[in-house]
Amino acid sequence: MKIIFPTIIHEIYIPTFKQIENDLIKLSYHEKKKDPKGASKSNQHGWQSQPLNPDHEFASMIMEAVKNHFATERIYKDGVGLQLLNSWVNISGKHAYNSKHTHPGAHLSGVVWVKIPPNSGRLEFEAPFSFTREKEIENYNEKVKEKYNVYPMIYYNPQPGMMVIFPSDLEHEVMSNKSNEDRISVSFNLKIIS
Q1: Among 8, 13, 78, 136, which one is most buried in terms of CB atoms within 10 A?
Q2: pLDDT tens-digit series, residues 16-46
Q3: Which helix (H) or strand (E) holds 27?
Q4: Distance from the first to the final alpha carbon of the chain
Q5: CA 124 to the chain's CA centroid
Q6: What is residue 189's three-state secondary structure?
């Protein structure tokens, strides 16, 4: 068997996260205090900031981690760069979630988790072919599913300081926060410059 047309998900851990974690949590609540209404996109019962300024601390942290990862791993050909299109803070209290969506107008999208209480909801990606290939997928045995990652849905259990970057057209959602504390993340969109 051979795998063709894979979907690449980048996993990055911010090495300095523990040292800045409390400051990032405070900064998130500061953004909410500045604009309590926020924006309404895919967030349900939660709060989302308007797009942050390009020189915001979160934007700087994101781009430093992204540039280090893509340069260290030599992901793209020489001369290819990434531009941050926008970023925003998400604060999701109990029962808040993000409905299934994509990020039109971007090439790559991502999230970095700032505060993640236990049971506060996982990130789920739906396979782009889950509808058309449902019968095929459901009948593979577990060995094949595991070896080739052939599932109708893949999920991430978020961890503080973890960043995930994925193609912007990949449908995803964030499940309901079942904890009594806020879940905090920062989402962003990137453009590939070549």
Answers
A1: 13
A2: 999 999 999 999 999 999 999 999 899 999 9
A3: helix 17-34
A4: 34
A5: 10
A6: strand
